[in-house]
Structure formats: C-alpha cells, structure tokens
C-alpha cells in the first residue's frame, strides 16, 4: 500500500520556537487519519505544511506523490479546510459554487450541489445567515467539489453542536466511501475520531508521540495493575507511558511489545481516549523504527 | 432493510458489533436468505463511521459463509447461522417476559434478576438445559 501523505524529519520553527519537530509519518492511501494533541502541540502547523501553506524549516514531505510547496499542480489535488471555516459572509452558497468552478480544473459541480441539496441548505441565502453546521457543510461541499485526493481538515467539528457534528462526519464518511480520498482531520473529540478514523496520529509539545492503525493501537496498549511497586521487568520489556503509584497499588499505562507473562500484573484493556491521554502526559515519543505489534493479552 | 446501531461506550469493537447485529437479524428472521445487506455507503452515511469498519464486518460474515459479496451489486444473505428456527426466539422471549413479570411481582429488582440469570447460566450444564 502506498503512502498518500509522508513526512521525513519534518520541522517548522517560528522565531526560536519549534511548532513541529522531527516529524516522520506515513499515512496510507484511502485512510481517515485522526490528528490529536493539546492546544499548541503543532497540529495546525503540520496540516498547513501538508496543504502547502507553510514551508518546512527542516525535513521534507510528500502529498499524493508531490512536494506541496514547489508544485502549483499540487493545489488541485489537495483540499484544506481551516479551523475558522473561511467563507465569504456576504456571498451565498451559489456564489461559492461558481467561484469553486472557476478556480478548480477538476471541479465537480454535481458532487457539491447534490450534497448541499440533500442537506437542504439554502443556496441563495448569504452565508452569514446560515448556522454553524450549515456553514461547515458548505465548506466541506466546496472542498469535495474540487475532487481532492487528500483532504485536510483542521478541527472541522469543534464549533458544531452534536447533531451538526454527526451530520458533518456522516457527509465526510460517505465521501471517503466513494473512494480515492485520503483524509487527515484534527479534533479534540476522541470518541468522534474513533468512529470515523482508522488511523491515529498523536502529537504533544511539537513531537509525534504515536502514528498507527487504530486497531493496532487498541490491541497493543493495556493498563497493568499490581500490588507490587517494582515495575522494572515491565519497563525492560515494554514501554511504560505513565505510572501511578499509591501505597497499595501500581498502575502502568503500557505499550506492549509482547504478552505479559508475570501473573502479578493484572492486564486491562484501555479505551482510545485513555490511550491518547496517556500519550499526552507521556515522555516517550514514537521511536521511528519501532513497529506496533498486534499483541493478544 | 436492516438498520445498524453502534454502542458508544462498548468494549466490543465496532466491526464486531455490526457483524453480531447481522447474525442476530438472521437468527430472528429480520433478514432472510437472498436479502441484500445495506451497502457500505449506506451504513457509513447513517452511522458516520469508517468504511473499513463495515468492510471488515462484512468480510467476517463472508468468511463464516453467511453472506456473499457480489461485485458491483451488493452483499447478499446466503444462509442463517446454525441454531434454532426463527420462531423459537419469539416464543422464548414471550415466556421470558411472563417470567420476568412474575419475578418483579415477587419483589426482585432487575439487578437481582440479572445476577440470577447469570448464575443459573454458569451453574446449569447443557444436559440439564435440554432435559
């Protein structure tokens, strides 16, 4: 399977501060990749570099086989939706569709229109009179109308109510099911990501902590609990992301490299949200050569 | 057409939930031989989930020989899973409802009933169950 998006030691510095450091990723074609991390962790900078809107300070990247910043033809292959959903407030959806048709060589008017009609979004009303959910859907329809091969969405559902969020994600999932589209979307809502994504990237403090198939992530992370305080054997064989020790009990959030043989440790499954939280508070960035193994516990 | 549901907080992976719902629909007779399962796009659109999740569920059912994917047309039911005929479930569910009503009337809480069912299930052997 070829990678739709790949980065190699990618970094971006603003003044003396690194927003993204040493980021090496490979997101396979046709996947929906969730990008999670705390505010200021570098998610937006990473997305902007993938979209060709920001030039890397170090390293290299490839999106749909091209280097974003030095190839104008690349622009028709990628769709980018910024967090603030930048639409012209005084224009209506119809104006935006005409603009999209004029600006994009591969524009598919039917795709965009069918989507908006199905959602009963008024095409003639100025954008400023539409709800947040409707605006997000107009923006998504424009992104999909240009028939991108990669779609990058920065916190697309953050401002939406639960129903509008579900409708937006449903539109997105349907578009992906139509094929030939790789998506990266950032979000704080892990439960949303768990439904719609099949790949996960976790960033914290400008570094990539985890990048893997969600099924593999779930299979290889466990909470180990024991009355014992000494965790040196576990630390030798596995990667301990976080530990919590009380007088009577030690809890370890662990990325397993194999089965846990010691019966003194009770092995419990972790939800995706728990795993993400463990990485956000962890000191162990992704070791680039280390592959996630599928481990039965 | 059958409708899928996903439990938000569940330890069962989404693909396994979907596959189990198809098996249940086959057991209870909601789905019959020759019926078409919802297309991947339909499921994805109604649940807002990843297409691979649906594909994985359908692949598992195909592997079990319950359904068959036909290129460009859809996924169709081949046969029911092994088990009692469809009407059996309805009959047993009805007598269970009567029993539960009796238990509640006798003053048992739902939690009591649940633990009674669980302990009876584990303690009775399959022989007793058929006797």
Labels describing this entry:
heterodimer; A: 297 residues; alpha/beta; six-stranded mixed beta sheet; four-stranded antiparallel beta sheet; 9 helices; 13 strands; disordered C terminus; B: 131 residues; mainly alpha; Arc Repressor Mutant, subunit A; 2 domains; two-stranded antiparallel sheet; 2 strands; 56% helix; elongated
Question: How would you explain this protein's 3D organization?
Answer:
The complex is a heterodimer of chains A (297) and B (131). By secondary structure, chain A is α/β, with parallel strands linked by helices. Chain A contains 9 helices and 13 strands. Chain A has helices spanning 43-50, 93-103, 109-118, 132-145, 162-177, 190-196, 214-220, 232-237, 272-280; strands at residues 3-14, 17-28, 32-36, 58-63, 78-81, 150-154, 182-186, 199-204, 207-213, 221-226, 239-245, 250-255, 266-269. In chain A, helix 3 (109-118) packs antiparallel against helix 4 (132-145) and helix 4 packs parallel to helix 5. The longest helix of chain A has 16 residues, at 162-177. The radius of gyration of chain A is 21 Å and the shape is elongated. The two termini of chain A are 28 Å apart. Chain B has 131 residues and is mainly alpha-helical. Chain B folds into 2 domains: 14-77, Arc Repressor Mutant, subunit A (Orthogonal Bundle), CATH 1.10.10.10; 87-130, no CATH class. In chain B, a hairpin with a 3-residue loop joins strand 1 (67-70) and strand 2 (74-77). Chains A and B meet through helix 5 and helix 6 of A and helix 2 and helix 3 of B.
| Percentage of residues in helical conformation of chain A | 25-40%
Look at the structure and give the mean pLDDT of chain A. 88
Q: Strand order, main sheet of chain A: write it out.
A: 5-6-7-3-8-9
Number of domains of chain B: 2
What's the rounded overall pLDDT mean of chain B?
86
Q: How would the global form of chain A be characterised?
A: elongated
């Amino acid at each position: 399977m070829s990678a739709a998006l790949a980065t190699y030691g990618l970094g971006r510095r603003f003044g003396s501060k690194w927003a993204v450091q040493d980021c090496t990723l490979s997101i396979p074609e046709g996947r929906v990749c969730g990008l999670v991390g705390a505010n200021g962790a570098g998610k937006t900078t990473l997305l902007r570099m993938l979209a060709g809107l920001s030039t890397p300070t170090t390293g290299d990247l490839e999106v749909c086989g091209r280097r974003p910043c030095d190839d104008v033809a690349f622009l028709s292959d990628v769709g980018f939706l910024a967090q603030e959903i930048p639409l012209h407030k005084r224009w209506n959806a119809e104006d935006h569709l005409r603009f999209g048709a004029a600006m994009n060589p591969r524009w598919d008017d039917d795709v965009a229109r069918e989507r908006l009609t199905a959602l009963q979004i008024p095409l003639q009303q100025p954008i400023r009179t539409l709800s947040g959910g409707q605006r997000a859907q107009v923006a998504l329809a424009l992104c999909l109308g240009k028939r991108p091969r990669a779609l990058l969405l920065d916190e697309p559902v953050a401002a939406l109510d639960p129903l509008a969020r579900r409708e937006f994600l449903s539109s997105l999932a349907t578009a992906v099911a139509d094929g030939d589209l790789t998506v990266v979307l950032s979000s704080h809502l892990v439960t949303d990501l768990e439904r719609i994504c099949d790949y996960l990237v976790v960033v914290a403090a400008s570094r990539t902590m985890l990048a893997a198939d969600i099924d593999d992530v779930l299979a290889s992370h466990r909470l180990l609990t024991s009355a014992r305080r000494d965790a040196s054997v576990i630390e030798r064989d596995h990667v301990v992301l976080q530990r919590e020790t009380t007088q009577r009990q030690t809890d370890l959030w662990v990325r397993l490299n194999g089965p846990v043989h010691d019966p003194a440790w009770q092995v419990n499954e972790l939800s995706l949200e728990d795993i993400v939280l463990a990485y956000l508070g962890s000191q162990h960035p992704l070791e680039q050569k280390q592959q996630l193994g599928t481990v039965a516990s | 057409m059958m409708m899928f549901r996903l439990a938000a907080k569940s330890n069962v992976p989404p693909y396994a939930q979907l596959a189990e719902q198809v098996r249940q629909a086959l057991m209870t007779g909601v789905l019959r031989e020759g019926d078409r399962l919802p297309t991947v796009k339909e499921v994805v659109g109604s649940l807002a989930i990843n297409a691979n999740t649906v594909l994985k569920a359908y692949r598992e059912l195909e592997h079990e020989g319950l359904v068959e994917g036909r290129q460009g047309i859809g996924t169709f039911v081949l046969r029911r899973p092994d088990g009692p005929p469809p009407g059996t479930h309805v009959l047993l569910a009805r007598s269970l409802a009567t029993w539960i009503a009796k238990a509640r009337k006798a003053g048992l809480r739902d939690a009591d009933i649940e633990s009674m069912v669980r302990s009876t299930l584990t303690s009775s052997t399959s022989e007793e169950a058929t006797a």
